[in-house]
Input
Amino acid sequence: MSSGLHAREPMWRRYRKPAIAVAVAGAVAAAAAVPLLNTGGPVNAARTSEAMSCTPIKLIVVPGTWETTSAADPNTPVGMLRGVTEPLERRFGDRISSYWVGYNATAFDQGKTYNDSKQTGIDAARKAMTEISRDCPGTRFVGLGYSQGADVAGDVAAQIGAGKGPIPAASYLAGGAAADPGRGTKGEVNLGDPLPGTRGLAGPRPGASAPCPDGSRTCASRATSTAPCRRRTSSPPPSAPC
Output
């Protein structure tokens, strides 16, 4: 079960990567345009990899089922979301960097259930965000996920929005997801033209519709995913075109 919508994939494959990239780019631009974000403070000198580098914005990227493993290198882009992160990194340069979350990423094989696999992703994403926020004060985060990875990223975002996440909600800048089993959550913002009333296989996330903190957004690509919270205002600002 790598996605709730793989049967429909040929209809919207061409939309999802550009849609997520454009939406997240708008939100990232709002932060990246700030001359200086406070990423100062003590930083572990041993953390020199791109994944753990202190940049104003950190992409926490969770690949889909069978796209990664628990032993994967967080510096190595894999799977569908490479087409999202690479344009963002080219556009924003040293103001942005990616952490690729390695986790079990299986579904009913290798001795783990889907939920067991998903939990390894949640744990890995939370651990990475905790460590990065500790070592890089002032860094803000964007969560990205595909398929099972969208399930992971969406649940972590919902935890953050509920005040139970690894970082404060004010540090969560934006999120984007494709083929999210949790699609249908109240308050989600969909890009493209999803069918009315459609949901992912897992159904809406319970308790995930609290107002977003100022400056935070989450977007979903065509017929795909969910936002952990809804905006306080009905119209998004020009800098965040989702």
